[in-house]
Amino acid sequence: MRRRILFICGSMNQTTMMEKISRHLLHHDCWFTPHYTDGFIGILEKRKLIEWTVAGQGHQSRALGFLEQHGKQIDFRGSRHMYDLVVTCSDLVVPKNIRHGRVVLVQEGMTDPENMAYYLVKYLGLPRYLASTSTFGMSDAYMRMCVASEGYKRHFIQKGAKHSKIAVTGIPNFDNCIEYTAQQFEHRNFVLVATSDARETFKYENRKATIERSLAIANGRKLIFKLHPNEVASRAVAEIEKWAPGAEVITGRPIEPLIAHCDTLITKYSSCVYVGIALGKEVYSDFPIETLRELCPIQNGGRSAERIASVCEEVVDSLGVRVAALHPQQMIASAA
Questions:
Q1: How far apart are CA 10 and CA 198, in angstroms?
Q2: How many helical (H) and strand (E) elements, i.e. helices and strands, does the chain have?
Q3: 266-282 mean pLDDT
Q4: Staple 131 to which of 117, 173, 181, 297, CB 3.0 to 4.6 Å?
């Protein structure tokens, strides 16, 4: 039976993941929206006060541009239709119009470390978004959660996610890293630093210490900094020119081909470290490396989107459909 499915996008990584999953569900009526919020956070969103998040207008604009370029049906905020299934990469904020429907949650990548904010949210019941992605998967507002590896399955169960809801599918964009070696890059035998947007998201980072550590690891080898897309580029470039004169700075291009051709990868809390691990690179991270190796997304030749789509088919056909009726423009189909 043909169903109506809403894909909630976000960052470009999340948006491309949703698009890849939808390719295996084309026999259904697929619609897309940039990430959105409501309530108090929705007010902040409309006043451009959460621009560093995936609900910021920068991410929304880039997602819309990608979706329009690929000819996708767009239903901003999922307000045009009622849906039989919602697929999303985030449950930090669950909009009211999807809370009682069928939801499949897909892991986007690495989650933030469990800091003080995480424990305040967990034990005091504060809003999950206060602890960023460290609370990913803790909403239980989904019927199935698709994760990157058996290691991540154990990780989310330890945080309180239900074992029965988790499916180890792998995740698009991180499931076939060998393909990046076929993409060209002009340099070889260098040390690559993937910088962080910690300061733009109100977290602490000693950038001078990060650069000095990178110089020490490089030990005379060519050093290339790839700036995080959310960073204030002018500030980051000035800092690198000051503390690492001669190092190259790259912005505005995918990092994966750079990782494929580097010798050593240095990161903070970036998911791109998994590309380095999957390709057998020497990697440095603020997370313990052995833990990252256990969590590393499975490599299945790029079949994660297909496997996630199979989970979506199971969910959308698992129960009969009952359409919610309180606010037809806001509510989606809910499970009977």
A1: 18
A2: 11, 13
A3: 95
A4: 117
* DSSP-derived pairing of the beta strands 29-33 and 166-168: unpaired
Instruction: State the CB neighbour count (10 A cutoff) for residue 336.
Output: 8
d(CA 2, CA 26): 10
Helix (H) or strand (E) holding 61: helix 57-69
The pLDDT value given to residue 202:
79
CB 112 within 8 A of CB 76: no
Place of tokens 């499915």: 5
The pLDDT tens digits of the residues spanning 229-259 come to 889 999 999 999 999 999 999 998 899 999 9
Coil, helix or strand at residue 42: helix
Q: Can you tell me the mean pLDDT for 99-110?
A: 94
Block residue for tokens 């990046």: 180
Q: At what angle do helices 12-22 and 57-69 cross, to 10 degrees?
A: 30
Tell the burial category of 57 from Cβ atoms under 10 Å away from its Cβ (0-12, 13-18, 19+). middle
Nearest to 12 by CA among 75, 52, 67, 50: 67
